[in-house]
User: Which sequence fits this backbone?
């Protein structure tokens, strides 16, 4: 997400951002975590509305199209990260007192000319803790190795993959797998699969392969379809 003035990315991924009445909209290929400090930020993530006031927070997932505006102005602590543990926090709000106190402290650190390096280094991990643990019912279930499942899918981009295909790999019914995907990653199963395919395509492009070859390897119907998918993701 961007605001009226987006700072350069920091090594720790944390920044302070002010939002105004000018409406913005985009998507990106990493997690973006917002915690409200002042005012109220109105979000619409994949068609669902969300308001971020002081102490509120939300996790915008990779690939999610989101609109944002703050009619009376708002200030937020923002974390841009690719760390997958944040998928566990998707779809859940943080523990408000802890999140607000921590966000205010990190905001104070960021505003200082000589920001405390240790605080900012560990800030993202502490922020994740402020989202609290997963519900006990989720923690008792047999874990899904999402990284291994992604690699399994990468080897099969040449044919259409369904939720049933993914579910069979982890020995679940399609409905069980779809629910686990929503609970643990905060996205629909097919959306997760699209994200994995696009991430693999970006990786191959980063290794210097041409668009046509990447499209062939990752199962896009044409180079232009791959280019359009990358453009939509931002």
Assistant:
């Amino acid at each position: 997400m961007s605001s009226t003035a987006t700072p350069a990315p920091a090594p720790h991924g944390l920044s302070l951002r002010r939002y105004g009445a000018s409406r913005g909209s985009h998507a990106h290929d990493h997690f973006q975590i917002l915690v409200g400090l002042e005012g109220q930020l109105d979000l619409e993530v994949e068609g669902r509305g969300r308001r971020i006031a002081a102490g509120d927070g939300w996790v915008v997932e990779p690939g999610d199209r989101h609109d944002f505006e703050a009619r009376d102005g708002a200030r937020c602590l923002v974390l841009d990260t690719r760390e997958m543990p944040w998928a566990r926090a998707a779809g859940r709000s943080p523990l408000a007192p802890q999140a607000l106190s921590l966000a205010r402290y990190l905001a104070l650190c960021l505003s200082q000319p000589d920001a405390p390096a240790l605080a900012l280094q560990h800030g993202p991990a502490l922020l994740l803790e402020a989202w609290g643990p997963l519900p006990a019912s989720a923690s008792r279930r047999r874990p899904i190795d999402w990284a291994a499942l992604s690699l399994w899918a990468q080897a099969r981009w040449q044919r259409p993959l369904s939720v049933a295909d993914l579910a069979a790999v982890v020995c679940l019914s399609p409905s069980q797998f779809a629910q686990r995907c929503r609970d643990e990653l905060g996205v629909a199963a097919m959306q997760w699969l699209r994200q994995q395919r696009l991430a693999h395509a970006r990786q191959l492009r980063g290794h210097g392969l041409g668009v046509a070859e990447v499209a062939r390897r990752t199962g896009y119907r044409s180079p232009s379809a791959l280019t359009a998918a990358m453009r939509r993701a931002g």
